[in-house]
Structures are given as C-alpha cells and as structure tokens.
Amino acid sequence: MRVTQSNKHTEGGSGSSTAAGVSGKETRTTEGETRRQVMHLLLTLGPVTASTLGDHLGLSAAGVRRHLDILVEDGLTETVQRRPQGQSRGRPAKHFRLTDRGRAYFGHSYDCLASDALDALREAGGSDAVRAFARQRVRKLLDTITPASSLADADEEVDEQAVEHTAQQLADVLNAHGYVSTVRPSESGIQVCQHHCPIAHVAAEHPELCEAEHEVITSLLSQHVQPLATIAEGHGICTTNIPLTQAHTITKGAGHDSGTI
C-alpha cells in the first residue's frame, strides 16, 4: 500500500478525519504527497480525466497517469468511460474516481451511527431491547458453528474434545468477520483471544454487546466461560477463558437453549 490510512479518530471512535489527513503517518516523498493530492481532488471533483487533474496540480497528463496507475493497482481508484457533456460521438474519455476503499481513507462515522442507533433503541425499549438486539446479532454472526453438545452422543456428556472443537470453530468464524481470533492453552483449559474488535468503540458505550457475546459462547460450548478482558474496556486483547476441567460436569443440552439466549 503506497498511501497509508489515517489513524486519526474523533472522540467516540467515529474514525472521521479531514480530507487533507489521508495519511496518519505522513510519507515524506514527493510522490506520496502527489498521490494524496490526487485522491483529494478525486474526492472533491468527482470522476475526472488525467488532464483535468494535471491542470489542478500543474503536472502533465502523463505524469498524473503514472500516479493514477499506482492508485488503481492499490484498489484506491478506478476508471470509468464518460463522454464530455454535449458530445454524442467519438470515443468516451477515460475518467478516474475513488473506490469505496479509497473513500475510506478520508474517514467515516459508522461507529457514531451505530452508537446513536443503539441509544435510540434504548430510549424506545429500554436496556432489554438493546440486549435482545445484541443477542440476535451474535447468534446471526455465529450461526454456522456446531454446538459442543451436538458433537456428543445422545447419552454422553460433553467432553473436552468437543469443547475444543467448537472453540476452534468459534475462532475461525470470528476471524472471518475481522476479529483476528486465536485459541491458546491456559493453565485451566483454553482461551479464545480476539486481537481486534471491529465494534470496540460502540461496545465501550454499550456493554450489552460484549455480554451477549459471552452468553452465546457459553451456550455454544455447553461450558461456563470466564471473560477476563475486553478491548472495549481498554485492554489490548479480548480474552475469554474456557476451563476445560469443568466440561464433564455439564451434560449435553444443559447450556444450549436458543430460546433463552
């Protein structure tokens, strides 16, 4: 990546930044600065030709195209064919515009929007409504995971192997959704660790999101879990301890009831 994303965030974790601050780590090269200027112009002008960009930057069209080619390669810009206004014949001119990925470099307010929506839900239905939403969200996120209780025979208790298998499935699904999750051994069993939380800023204001996650994980594992740390509370990693020594004490189906979580 030759243009780095802004690390500036507004209070509350919205991720907003000014258009001029495309790079949180400012590149000192002239080429890096030129590409940031190109992206800023594409943001403000919309789809434009290399010649138009060159006029604004005081560069030749060929010089601008070299930067545009790099931005296209990096997935930050794309080309579209457009005829000049009033022209019905001839080859359409190649215009350039930012991709969704390119626009993301200028920040967004998705966290603020999500938090505002949960605030409105709380005002309308109270904390129970927020909890119900949080549980529904986690169930949908983890609905492809096989509960540990389903891995045991009908007349058998849930064993450690079943819990470990479901825990690894849990980590895999969380990884697919951007949580960067791993499973590691602990003194009393295993731990599911999330090294990134895509909703950390929202969860910091609405702890029901983390609580629902732990409830559903308990249900899937048929095993009591111990939340040790969360990124939303300021820790570096979300850590959930699963004490395998207790796995044999919970029989099949005792912890998995989709109607109560």
Q: What does this protein look like?
A:
The protein has 261 residues and is of the alpha+beta class. It folds into 2 domains: 108 residues, Arc Repressor Mutant, subunit A (Orthogonal Bundle); 140 residues, Muramoyl-pentapeptide Carboxypeptidase, domain 2 (2-Layer Sandwich), CATH 3.30.1380. Helices cover 43% and strands 12% of the residues. The protein has 8 helices and 6 strands; from the N terminus they run H-H-H-E-E-H-H-H-E-E-H-H-E-E. The chain has a 4-stranded antiparallel sheet with strand order 3-4-6-5, covered by helices on one side. A two-stranded antiparallel sheet has the order 1-2. A hairpin with an 8-residue loop joins strand 5 and strand 6. Helix 1 packs across helix 3. The longest helix is centred in the middle third of the chain and has 32 residues. The protein starts with 29 loop residues before the first helix and ends in a 19-residue tail after the last strand. This is Transcriptional regulator.
What is the structure about, briefly put?
This protein is α+β, with helices and mostly antiparallel strands and 261 residues long. It is built from 8 helices and 6 strands.
List keywords for this structure.
ArsR-like_HTH, Transcriptional regulator, two-stranded antiparallel ribbon, Carb_Metab_HTH_regulators, disordered C terminus, WH_DNA-bd_sf, 261 residues, 6 strands, Muramoyl-pentapeptide Carboxypeptidase, domain 2, Arc Repressor Mutant, subunit A, alpha+beta, 12% strand, 4-stranded antiparallel beta sheet
